[in-house]
Predict the 3D structure of the following.
Amino acid sequence: MTETVQEEMIDMNELLGDKAELLEEEAQSNSVKARENEQKPLAERKNEEYISIYSGRALKPEELFRFSTNEDVTLVLIAGPYASGKTTLIVMLYRLFLEGYNKRLCFSGSKTMDGFRERSENLLCKSGQAEPLVARTSRGAEDWYLHLAISNAEERRQNIFFADISGEAFSDINGLEIMAEFFSDNENVIIVVNGENLCDINGRNGEIFAADLMLKRLLNKKILSKKTKLQIVFTKKDKVDNCEKKEEVIRYIEEKEKLFINKFEAYVYSVKCIFLSALSEEPDECEKLEQIIETCMEMGSMDSNVDLQAVEYKIVRHFDRFQLRERG
Ligand SMILES: Nc1nc2c(ncn2[C@@H]2O[C@H](COP(=O)(O)OP(=O)(O)O)[C@@H](O)[C@H]2O)c(=O)[nH]1
Ligand SMILES: [Mg+2]
């Protein structure tokens, strides 16, 4: 076990009053069960098809489907170009609770602790490297979903799944077709814009153009719709704060935030822009991370249209294609 992981366990125990250890034990015991199950002949495995075993790593679509047959799921798609900061943002949303920077929301567990750990290895490494690294390892093409069970002040517990998908998936039409199958009418979409690239006066319009194009494509493919709570996150604020023309870049970002809101608010349920440094531990930045999760948890069009309209606008998501299985 690395030093970073040990540190995490201690903090988590303090934070959760020994529950973290239980979660760790649970994850380990689940891994053992998964291995035992894999070693059995197929005939024996068949009778166990309703037992849900999670390895602790990010879930694949069929694993998410299995989870969703028993519990409600709040799905959050994180989209953005390569290296814009998507994985870092997801990892920091988890670390918010790990480090105890959360003010209003409470951590109620995660089925994908190992998935978060894999991605956060080296994230805050203090070994003198100029740039922290987010692990880019992946066990397969579709292990996208990272889970946080979160409770708010009304003790409403929600299972939030963040879809951690590489930027390449959104860069061509074929990739978008596949994404449309998985994330049609997605309840929450977060678009990540790389703030560092906005410091470059010559290149910054290209960055905004890329975000604008992605938003249009997601709308076109009906991934974004009237059911979507859209959040546009301008990351790497710390880089902007340290750049030469800081004031000018901040004005540019504010102008683009207004432009995005004006342009897209009519097409989605709600739209918000957030300018943050995902890696910062400052209270203001942690507050912004918490607000992102709160927005994902807010009631949206899904909850308010429970009458006849819900039938009319049937939600077809990829993991629903397996359909509910009869029990007994
Ligand atoms: N300084 C700074 N670096 C960041 C921030 N967010 C991400 N990064 C760095 O940007 C690089 C790409 O981030 P990553 O999350 O892997 O991008 P992804 O490809 O969109 O998932 C990594 O080196 C991160 O450490 C931030 O808020 N501030
Ligand atoms: Mg990534």
Remarks:
- The pocket of magnesium ion (ligand 2) is lined by residues 86-87, 166 (CB under 6 Å).
